[in-house]
Write a structure and sequence with these properties.
The structure is a homodimer of 205-residue chains.
Chain A (H helix, E strand, L loop, with lengths): L10 H25 L2 H8 L3 H7 L3 H21 L7 H18 L1 H12 L6 H24 L8 H17 L1 H8 L4 H16 L4
Helix pairs in contact in A: 1-2, 1-4, 1-6, 4-7, 5-8, 5-10, 6-8
The structure holds a DNA duplex (30 and 30 nucleotides).
DNA sequence: TCAGAATTTTACCATTTGGTAAAGTAACCC
DNA sequence: GGGTTACTTTACCAAATGGTAAAATTCTGA
């Protein structure tokens, strides 16, 4: 066994693996998988390259570990959408949580965006296995709300896409937003998005 | 002068530069700047690597050329928004043109997304010089429409962001959309987005 | 305290990558 | 046709990159 993490990870293991993953998140989210180098990650983590390879089986192993961890964080806000709550409140809450994540975890958002942009080569299994069932479940839920007349009739799938797009935009396209607004404006974004989704979702007459 | 394109480009020049740029668009849009290699571009173009370096000064030169060309294409739909037209019609037309571009030029969209995602290192001058003035002009235009009571009062800047985000999503996150919808659905996207922006922009009472 | 396990460092290596020099081939113009 | 210019190929190279072997060091529990 050259694998040090078969059994219980020691204190040192946890600390160093954590440092490496944090550094890798930083580098991968900025340059994408192929653009990131182990040397960059090593320097950002303050750990030598061979030492990094003591904790992970290789570059890809680090990336995959990161993506797996990310998937959970990523799905949480959607999972939290409560079937028994008020539909409009639940959807606006989801928008709010996604926007908060863009503000608080922009690196995670960009890591994800990078992976999807490049065709999700290391993530499509996860998308199929974890995201898709949840997506379909929530689409069905939204459809029942629509059928019950509690929401205006719009395509649940495209509604979710637009929520993802509009909220993640502030993390993924931050460089552009910075240039155009001379700084971030999450307050303005929140106000606008609440308005946008309230208007389209409120049932008409 | 080792630069062959100082004067009028010959037929061969135009053809080969075109082939190289097309191949480079393909590769850069898929892997990002640092993830793309000259060998990949050479193979995709059907031109040997040294020959590519006869036409361009280096990898960065190709990338910059591509981004400059792209900027024009990219701004066109926004430029076409007519101050003298009907506000809602103009904005919905803009949404439509952007969505068409996502469908017809997904590689261009992803090239742009890659560059912004990585902090726009080679593009922020262009953003400042070309995009920002246009953005501010159109924000002002939308504001006059709002002030005239022809549109509901929403932040013009965030409105434009959301139009970008929702339309480009279908090109940039295509891999995800494919998984979740089992194929593209530009028809559904169009219908949804028209609805979304009609509802938020129509002046109330 | 001390043997064995866990961790870290040093010294490498093979491949890939952006790029160049120079010789060869094709095109053009008189 | 021949000289000049434009283009293409061949043969390289230095640096960067992912990864390894093995020695050296630090930790840990009996």
């Amino acid at each position: 066994m050259t694998e040090p993490r078969e059994k219980k990870p020691s204190r040192i293991q946890q600390r160093n693996r954590g440092k490496i993953l944090d550094a890798a998140l930083h580098v991968f989210s900025q340059h994408g998988y192929r653009g990131a180098t182990l040397d960059q990650i090593a320097e950002a983590a303050g750990i030598s390259k061979p030492n990094i390879l003591y904790y992970f089986n290789g570059k890809e192993d680090i990336h995959v570990t990161l993506l797996s961890q990310l998937m959970e964080t990523w799905l949480d806000p959607l999972i939290d959408m409560n079937p028994d709550g008020d539909p409009l409140t639940e959807l606006l809450g989801y928008v709010q949580r996604k926007l908060d994540m863009s503000r608080d975890f922009p690196r995670e958002s960009r890591l994800f965006a990078n992976e999807i942009l490049q065709g999700a080569p290391r993530m499509s299994p996860h998308l199929e296995a974890a995201l898709k069932p949840l997506f379909e479940e929530k689409c069905a839920l939204i459809q029942t709300w629509i059928d019950a007349g509690q929401l205006a009739p719009v395509s649940p799938a495209h509604l979710i896409f637009s929520i993802w797009a509009t909220t993640q935009h502030y993390a993924d396209f931050d460089a552009q937003v910075q240039v155009l607004l001379d700084g971030p404006d999450y307050k303005g974004a929140e106000e606008y998005l609440v308005r946008l989704y309230t208007d389209v979702l409120a049932p008409k007459s």
